[in-house]
Prior knowledge:
The chain is of the alpha+beta class. The protein has two domains: 4-336, BirA Bifunctional Protein, domain 2, CATH 3.30.930; 352-450, Rossmann fold (3-Layer(aba) Sandwich), CATH 3.40.50. Helices cover 37% and strands 19% of the residues. It has helices at 27-46, 61-64, 93-103, 146-162, 175-185, 189-200, 204-213, 218-226, 235-245, 249-267, 329-336, 360-371, 385-394, 424-436; strands at 4-5, 23-24, 50-51, 57-59, 77-79, 85-88, 111-120, 132-141, 169-174, 231-232, 274-277, 290-295, 304-308, 322-328, 352-355, 376-378, 399-402, 409-412, 415-418, 445-446. The strands form four sheets. The protein has a nine-stranded mixed beta sheet, with helices on both faces. Strands 16-15-17-18-19-20 form a six-stranded mixed beta sheet, with helices on both faces. A hairpin with an 8-residue loop joins strand 12 and strand 13 (304-308). Helix 5 (175-185) runs antiparallel to helix 10, helix 6 runs antiparallel to helix 7 and helix 9 (235-245) runs antiparallel to helix 10. The two termini are 36 Å apart. The model is unreliable at 4-10 and 440-453 (pLDDT under 50).
Amino acid sequence: MSSLVSNSTTRRTGTGQIPAGVADYFWDAAYERRSLEDTLLAFFRCWGYSDVMTPAFEYAETWIASGSWAEEAELCRFLDRDGSMLALRADMTIPVARLAGTRLHDVAMPQRFCYAGNVFRNTESRAGQQREFWQAGVELLGSAAPAADGEVLALTAQALDSLGIARYRLVVGQMLYFDGLLRTLQLTPAQQARLTQAIDRNSQPELDDFLREVRLPRRQQRALAEVPHLGGSNVDDVLRRAEKLALNVSMQAAVANLRAICDTLAAHAVLDRVTLDLSEIHSLGYYTGITFEVLAPGVGFRIASGGRYDNLAGAFGRAMPAVGVAFGLERVLLAQRGGTPDSASQPIAPDLLVATGNRRAAFVFVDVARQRGLRIAVELDGRGGDTLWRAAQMSGVRCVLDWSGDEPVLYSAAGSQRVTGCDAAEMTAHLLASLANPATPDVQVLPPQAVQA
C-alpha cells in the first residue's frame, strides 16, 4: 500500500474519500518527507537562518491587491464568517514578506528566515496534478548586496550536495537585463506582451516573426536576436557577450551584478554547478533581479527556485530588499531517487521489541535506549520467547528483548543471548553492537529453543 494520491476529476463527496490533487502519506512515505524537512531546516539553521511560521490562510487581498501573485485564478479562496475573502497560502515568500513589512520596523538588518510547510494551488484537475505542495526554503531580507544573492545560491547548491543529489544545475537569470532591453525598445503594450511570450516560451519562430514585423534599429534588433543565446555554463563567456550587447546603463548594471554574484559563488566553490540564462523570465510577478531554478537528471521540472524581490515587503509596510529560495520536497525526493517514483509505503519496524514483564528494570532500559536514539516498541499482548521472536521477524523487527523472566534474553539473527550483570547503559551499548553486526554477538549464544523465558 502506498501514499494515496487522489487523481479523480469527477465530483466525489463520499465519506473517507479525499479531493483530487491532495494525498495521504503514511509509514515510510511520511517519514522520508518529515526527515527531508528536518534535514533541510537543520541545514538552514547552520547558515544562521531563524525559523518562521506563517498562517496557512490569509486575506486574499494579500496576494491580489499587491499585484504580486501572477495567477490569481490559482488561489484557493473561501469566505470567512464575517464575509471576508480568505485564501490558502499559494507560496511561502509572500507571507514572510508581509510579516517583514509589517512587523520588522526597528530590527537590525539583514534578517534571515527559514521555513517548511504546505502551500496550495487551485490548478486544473488532471491526472497526477497536485494542488497541495510541501516546501522548505529561506528568505534573506534587508540586503541588496550581490553577496546576499550569492549566499542564497551557494546555500541552495550545498544543501543539494548534502542530500546526495548529483549533476544538478543552477540555472540563473537576471530580470534587470531583459527589463533594460525592453525600456530601450519602447514597444507598445501589445508588442511587449508578444515579445515576452516568445522569450518566455523560448520560441525561435515567434521571435523571428516579431523581428520581421516590428521595425527596430539594427543594434536593438541584433541585441534582441541574441538574447535567447545568452546562456551556458561558461559564465565568463556569457557575461562577456552580454556586456557587448548591452544597450544602456541598466543592462550594464545587470551584467556587473551577475559578475559579482559569480565571484561569490566561485569563493563558495559552487560556480561549476551554475548555468547562466539571460532569457530566463520567471512567471511570478514579484521578482526584480536574479531568478533561478534547479534542474536535476530524471526530473522533468525544477526541484527548487527563487530569486530577488526588492519591492514585495514594501507593498505591506517597510520596504526592504530581499532574496530567497524554495525547495519542492516531493521533487527533491524524486531527484534523490534519480527520477524513479517512490515505491509502495511500508511500515517502519522498530529496532527492538521488548517484552517487559511489567518490570521496572525493563522500563528503565527502554527509557535509556530511546534516549540513545533507538526505536523501541513494547510488547502489549503478553507474548515471549520463540513466539514473540517469530512474530517480530514477520514484522521486520531485527531484535527482541524478552524480560519475562529474571534475566533478559536478547533474540537476534545470531540466535539468543542471555544478558546478565548489565545496567541499562551497558545493555543499550550491547544492543547497539548487536544491531551493527547481528551475526557477531559479544556474549555466549544459545539456540532459541534452549533459552527459557
